[in-house]
């Protein structure tokens, strides 16, 4: 079941920050927010995950609102290679599988 | 190996034939997952293996679908009497432990076309 809502598509200029929003208003206390992306003709790739604190790694930053009902994935300097479908997923860490919705198709424009 | 390996990368089969899809997970990963993705759609969970535990088969769409994992490593997804609606990309993923927190590593998938 989809626990997240994402825009269907977004554009971003190359070199600018890409901010991808996700709503998860029914998230429960023990559920994490995960982000994956899928570049055309490849399997999905793990990006980042978090519980309530903001997280940053070499790929992206994850900003989670204080009430945890929404989050934003930030790609600080988007490149053409970042064009992909980005999936926001909410799940307990003890869950057997992740539910991938239809995600946001991000197009980075030269 | 360095990543999750799936074979074949492409498979065209006639309706009614059986097919086998193979997945080699990352060495040491105890959890293995199968998903499928129809054209333009999100991923659909099929089955999950974790160590020696009984697999979670709750996502298999019909009894024509089955999967095995031998020796806790290689997995085979079998589709019997294929139908055109089985056409999709079948994706395999593995993870270090049997829960989602470690992140999945996906293979590149097998594109199945039933004609």
Molecular structure report:
The complex is a heterodimer of chains A (110) and B (115). With 110 residues, chain A is mainly beta. Chain A is built from no helices and nine strands. In chain A, the strands form two sheets. Chain A has a five-stranded mixed β-sheet with strand order 1-9-8-3-4, with no helix packed on it. A four-stranded antiparallel β-sheet of chain A has the order 2-7-6-5, with no helix packed on it. Chain A starts with 8 loop residues before the first strand and ends with a strand. In chain B, strands 2, 4, 5, 8, 9 and 10 form a six-stranded mixed β-sheet that branches. In chain B, strands 1-3-7-6 form a four-stranded antiparallel β-sheet, with no helix packed on it. The model of chain B has no long low-confidence stretch (mean pLDDT 91). Chains A and B meet through strand 3, strand 4 and strand 8 of A and strand 5 and strand 9 of B.
In short:
The complex is a heterodimer of chains A (110) and B (115). Chain A has strands at residues 9-13, 18-23, 31-38, 45-50, 55-56, 61-64, 70-75, 84-92, 104-109. Chain A contains no helices and 9 strands.
List the helices and strands and how they pair.
The complex is a heterodimer of chains A (110) and B (115).
Chain A: E1 9-13, E2 18-23, E3 31-38, E4 45-50, E5 55-56, E6 61-64, E7 70-75, E8 84-92, E9 104-109
Parallel strand pairs in A: 1-9
Antiparallel strand pairs in A: 2-7, 3-4, 3-8, 5-6, 6-7, 8-9
Chain B: E1 5-7, E2 10-13, E3 19-24, E4 31-37, E5 43-50, E6 65-69, E7 75-79, E8 88-95, E9 105-106, E10 110-114
Parallel strand pairs in B: 2-10
Antiparallel strand pairs in B: 1-3, 3-7, 4-5, 4-8, 6-7, 8-9, 8-10
């Amino acid at each position: 079941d989809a626990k997240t809502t994402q825009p269907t598509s977004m554009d971003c200029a190359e070199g600018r920050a890409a901010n991808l929003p996700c709503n998860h208003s029914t998230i429960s206390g023990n559920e994490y927010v995960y982000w994956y992306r899928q570049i055309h003709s490849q399997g999905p790739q793990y990006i980042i995950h978090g519980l309530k604190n903001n997280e940053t790694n070499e790929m992206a930053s994850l900003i989670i609102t204080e009430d945890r009902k929404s989050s934003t994935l930030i790609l600080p300097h988007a490149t053409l290679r970042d064009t992909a479908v980005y999936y926001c997923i909410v799940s307990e860490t003890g869950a057997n599988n992740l539910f991938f919705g239809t995600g946001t198709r991000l197009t980075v424009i030269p | 190996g360095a990543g999750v390996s799936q074979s074949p990368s492409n498979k065209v089969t006639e309706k009614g034939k059986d097919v086998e899809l193979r997945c080699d997970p990352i060495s040491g990963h105890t959890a293995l997952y199968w998903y499928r993705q129809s054209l333009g759609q999100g991923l659909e969970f099929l089955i999950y293996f974790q160590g020696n535990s009984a697999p979670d088969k709750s996502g298999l769409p019909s009894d024509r679908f089955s999967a095995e994992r031998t020796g806790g490593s290689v997995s085979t997804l079998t589709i019997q009497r294929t139908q055109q609606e089985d056409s999709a990309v079948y994706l395999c993923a593995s993870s270090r432990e049997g829960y989602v927190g470690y992140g999945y590593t996906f293979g590149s998938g097998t594109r199945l076309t039933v004609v």
